[in-house]
C-alpha cells in the first residue's frame, strides 16, 4: 500500500516533518480526512488515514493537537498541518508523524486523495515527463551532471553518478551540501565496484544517517551507478525517478565518441588573445547556445555564463541576442 512517505513526497516534497517518528513514515495510508474546525469537531473515527488540519486552528501547539486527536479516538497514520507558512512547531513528543508545509489544506487533501486513487498512473506520467526532461538536458550538455541536475531539482534530493568507481556527477539538494559531502565520503570508502548485477534498485541506510538508492547501469563496457541520497527515507517516487535517470544515462554512456578529425583544429577560429572576446564569438557562432560554446573554448559552461554576465554589464553586449551576435560576427570577419 501507499505509505505516509509516498504521499508526502508526492504531494509536497518541500514540506517538512515537524514532529514524530521517522520509522512511522512507512505506515500505509488508507484514506484522507480533513478538519476545518477546532477540536472536538474532528472527523469520524478512522484508522490509518492522513488527517489534514487547517493551521489556523492549531493554537495550543502540536502537543495539544495530538492530545485532542487521541481523546477523539482517532488513530491517523499521520497529521498534516497546512498551511504552515513561517511557522515553527515544537516537537509534540508523540510517535505519530506530523508534517507541515505551505500548500493550502484543500490542495493537500485533493492531491493526497488523488494519489491514493491513481498512484500507478501518476507515477508513470511523472516518469515519462522526467525521462523527456533528462534527455533534453543530456542533449544540450553531454555530461552525466546535466540529467542528474534535472532529477535533483525535481525531487529536492541529492543525486550522484559514478562511472568506473569514480564520481562523475554530484548534485546536492537545495540547502543540502553537507549531505553531499557525507555521500562523497561514503562513496570514497566503498571497495572497487564489482561487475554490475541484474538491473535492480538497492536501498541502503548508512551509519552516519544517509538513506541511499543505487541503480546499477552497464553501458559501453563501463560499470556505472546512479544514486539518490538524503537524510530522510526515500519514497516510491524516488525509485521511479532513479529508473528514469538510469535510462537516460545508459543511452548517454553508450553514445559513441566522435572520432577526432584531422581538420578540427584548422576549422576552429584563431584566438583573439582576449578570453572575453573569444567567449562572445564562440557563443555567437553557436547560435547563442552555452554548452557548444563551452566545448569550443574548453571551459565549464558556468565560466561561459560568468563571462557573458560580465560582458553584458561592462559592454552591454549579449551574443545570445541575434542582433548582437550578427554584429560581433560581422566585425570579426572585417578584422
Topology, please?
Elements: H1 4-11, E1 16-19, E2 31-35, E3 49-54, H2 61-71, E4 78-82, E5 98-100, H3 105-140, H4 145-155, E6 158-163, E7 166-171, H5 177-189, E8 201-205, E9 211-219, E10 222-230, H6 236-254, H7 264-267, H8 275-285, H9 290-297, H10 301-315, H11 322-334
Notes on the structure:
- It is built from eleven helices and ten strands.
- The chain is α/β, with parallel strands linked by helices and 335 residues long.
- It folds into three domains: 4-113; 141-254, Beta-Lactamase (2-Layer Sandwich), CATH 3.30.450.40; 264-334, PucR C-terminal helix-turn-helix domain (Arc Repressor Mutant, subunit A), CATH 1.10.10.2840.
- It has a five-stranded mixed beta sheet with strand order 1-5-4-3-2, covered by helices on one side. It has a five-stranded antiparallel beta sheet with strand order 7-6-10-9-8, sandwiched between helices.
- The longest helix is centred in the middle third of the chain and has 36 residues, at 105-140.
pLDDT below 50 for ≥5 consecutive residues: which ranges? 258-268
Strand order of the largest sheet: 1-5-4-3-2
- Strand percentage lies at 15-25%
Q: How many alpha or pi helices?
A: 11
CATH architecture of the largest domain: 2-Layer Sandwich
What integer value in Å does the Rg equal? 25 Å
For this entry, what is the oligomeric state of its chains?
single chain
> What is the residue-averaged pLDDT?
86
What's the CATH first level of the largest domain?
A: Alpha Beta
Largest sheet: 5 strands, mixed
Amino acid at each position: 500500500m501507499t505509505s505516509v512517505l509516498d504521499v508526502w513526497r508526492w504531494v509536497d516534497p518541500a514540506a517538512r516533518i515537524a514532529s514524530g517518528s521517522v520509522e512511522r513514515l512507512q505506515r500505509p495510508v488508507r484514506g484522507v480526512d480533513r478538519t476545518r474546525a477546532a477540536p472536538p469537531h474532528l472527523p469520524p473515527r478512522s484508522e490509518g488515514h492522513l488527517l489534514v488540519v487547517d493551521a489556523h486552528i492549531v493554537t495550543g501547539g502540536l502537543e495539544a493537537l495530538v492530545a485532542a486527536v487521541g481523546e477523539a479516538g482517532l488513530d491517523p497514520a499521520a497529521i498534516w498541518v497546512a498551511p504552515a507558512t513561517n511557522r515553527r512547531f515544537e516537537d509534540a513528543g508523540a510517535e505519530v508523524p506530523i508534517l507541515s508545509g505551505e500548500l493550502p489544506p484543500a490542495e493537500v487533501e485533493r492531491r493526497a486523495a488523488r494519489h491514493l486513487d491513481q498512484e500507478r498512473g501518476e507515477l508513470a506520467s511523472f516518469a515519462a515527463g522526467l525521462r523527456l526532461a533528462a534527455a533534453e538536458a543530456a542533449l544540450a550538455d553531454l555530461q552525466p551532471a546535466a540529467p542528474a541536475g534535472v532529477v535533483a531539482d525535481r525531487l529536492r534530493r541529492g543525486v550522484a553518478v559514478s562511472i568506473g568507481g569514480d564520481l562523475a556527477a554530484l548534485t546536492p539538494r537545495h540547502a543540502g551540501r553537507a549531505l553531499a559531502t557525507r555521500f562523497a565520503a561514503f562513496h570514497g570508502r566503498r571497495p572497487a565496484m564489482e561487475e554490475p548485477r541484474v538491473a535492480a534498485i538497492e536501498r541502503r541506510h548508512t551509519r552516519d544517517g544517509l538513506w541511499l538508492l543505487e541503480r546499477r547501469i552497464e553501458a559501453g563496457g563501463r560499470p556505472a551507478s546512479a544514486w539518490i541520497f538524503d537524510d530522510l527515507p526515500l519514497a516510491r517516487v524516488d525509485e521511479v525517478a532513479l529508473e528514469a535517470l538510469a535510462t537516460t544515462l545508459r543511452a548517454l554512456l553508450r553514445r559513441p565518441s566522435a572520432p577526432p578529425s584531422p581538420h578540427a583544429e584548422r576549422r576552429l577560429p584563431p584566438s583573439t588573445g582576449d578570453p572575453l572576446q573569444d567567449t562572445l564569438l564562440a557563443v555567437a557562432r553557436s547560435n547563442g547556445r552555452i554548452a557548444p560554446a563551452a566545448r569550443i573554448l574548453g571551459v565549464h559552461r558556468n565560466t561561459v555564463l560568468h563571462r557573458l554576465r560580465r560582458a553584458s554589464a561592462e559592454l552591454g553586449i549579449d551574443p545570445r541576442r541575434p542582433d548582437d551576435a550578427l554584429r560581433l560576427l560581422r566585425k570579426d570577419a572585417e578584422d
